[in-house]
Here is the input.
Amino acid sequence: MTKTNTANTLAECQALDQEDPLRSLRDLFQVPEGMIYLDGNSLGVLPKATPARVAAAVTKEWGQDLIQSWNSAGWFQMPLQVGNKIARLIGAKDDEVVAADSTSINLFKVLSAALSIAQADHPEKKVILSELTNFPTDLYIAEALCKERGFSLKLVEAEELQTALQQDVAVLMLTHVNYRTGAMLNMKAMTALAHSVGALTVWDLAHSAGAVPVDLNDSQADFAVGCGYKYLNGGPGAPAFVWVHPKHTDRYWQPLSGWWGHAAPFEFTPDYKPASGITRYQCGTQPILSLTALDTALDAFLEAEKLGGMKALRLKSLALTGLFMQLVQSQLQGHGFGIATPSQDNLRGSQVSLTRKEGAYAIVQALIARGVIGDFRAGDGQHHPDILRFGLTPLYTGYADVWHAVRHLKEVMDTQEWQQARFSQKQAVT
Here is the structure.
């Protein structure tokens, strides 16, 4: 365990903040005064540089230069430019990642390509294997493709994955860090196991990119997608990204063969010729203003590189999550909480998920009313309980933030504040 995990008092946590070699990074973000924001795994905080940069794109690049900006401001190259910044965080090389579309759309692209490869190389394999608690959208897209392509979707618990990886599996589709529990899979080991039975891997990095070190090339992964609005801080609905191992990139068209993925889009030919490399995974015209916001946000990671990069961010993340779990265990005994997040460092991402049989949603709402922002994720009423979820983002979360968050949680429970009727009224977004 790290030194940080031994902190018990506010003074000790404040001292850790003062000693934190990454403390200057918080100044890059607009963290609202009086708020303890622990929801960066849903929506990252606004970088201070973003408003001015986006305003310039609106007023100068769009407002004055207009269509010329596709050339003069480099708009057309921006998806690859942003992709190259993301590549530094996920163990990819230059020109192997493109920022485009949404995570869901990109998953459709890569899963379709993976199924095409599987059909060509191993036509007898007809199963997509995934985790039962994978993010629902991933499962919905896989289900739709199975119906369209004649495959079947097999869902198992995480601990059953290795046993379920049999010769009939064409594609292993997994989220690197589970959105509910924060449990992290061993990408390299799972990929090797999949390859040993002739299966391809598709990885969702939505809760990994910018939060934990990822090395796609070293892991020999086949396909990966991820989003730009969580730990990458690109803003609501920020473009996602897609990576394909170079050995697969040029083998098949992705099914959404739009003009931005064409080898020569401005020749306007009626027949489709895919671009070589990762740019073929683009489809239509990309959202330049959103890409500008994401591009600006990623500069925080360039600043972090000067302070140790993803390795240093990971060490702080583990310390923050370890501290949170330690304080919950010591301060909230008797209040019915369980901890779904693994305590072992190499098995968790950058969040802590608490379980409770009753009142999880109301407790989260009571915390939000106090300025402690987490979120709620519903269970299935059987094997998977309701979750109180807290994302700890080392770019801007401090140790004192964690201490205060747990203090507020204790007060909410001690006073039974969460039982007020207003906190049980479900909102559209939980």
About this structure: The CA atoms of residues 160 and 397 lie 34 Å apart. The mean pLDDT is 96. Residues 3-47+309-424 form a domain with the Aspartate Aminotransferase, domain 1 fold (CATH 3.90.1150.10).
